[in-house]
Design brief:
The chain is of the alpha+beta class. 28% of the residues lie in helices and 33% in strands. The protein has helices at 2-17, 22-26, 96-99, 123-132, 144-148, 167-175, and strands at residues 32-36, 41-47, 50-56, 63-65, 70-78, 81-88, 105-110, 115-120, 154-155, 161-165.
Length: 176
Amino acid sequence: MIKLLSVALLLCICVSLSGCSLHSLVGDGRGDWTLELFGGYAIVKVNSYCINLVRLLEDGAGSTYIIPNFFVQGFQTSEPYILLKGIRCEGEFATDIERNATDYSYYLFNTADGMLAGPYASFDELAHSCADHALLVQDTWLSPQSLVNGIEPKRGEHGNTYYYCKPETAVAASAA
C-alpha cells in the first residue's frame, strides 16, 4: 500500500515538474475552434467530446455553456434565434456511444433575451415551437465541424491552435 502511494506521489511530482496540465494530458488544443455567431454567442469545440453553444464573456475572459451536457451536431440561425440539434450527455463530455447516437434533442435559443426552449424530442416539435415565433425551420442543419474545415488556424495566447471564424466566412472557405 505504501509502495502504491509512493508511486502515485512520484507521478504527481513528475507531472507538475514537467509543466503538464490536465489539458495537455488530454490534448494540446489542436483542432479546437470557435465559430462566432451573433449577440456574443458562439459554438465552440473544446475537444472531440465537447462541442457546445456558449456565451462569450466580455474582454475574452472565457465563456459559459448555454446547455450543459449537450453535444452540438447541427445548428441553424435566424437572428436573434439559434436552433440546435444534438445529443444530451450524461456528463460534460460526450462518450463515443453518445457521439454516435441518433436520438437527437432540439433547442430554440433566443439571443435577444437569453430564453432557451427545449429540449424537444423531435424535429416536428421544434418546428411547431418555431412556428409560434414566426420562424420557418427546415430539417437541414449546418455541421459546425464541416464549417471550420479549410479555415486557417490561429495561435492562441497559451500556444494552442484554434479556429475562429464567422459562419459566412466558413461557408465561403468550404465552398472554395
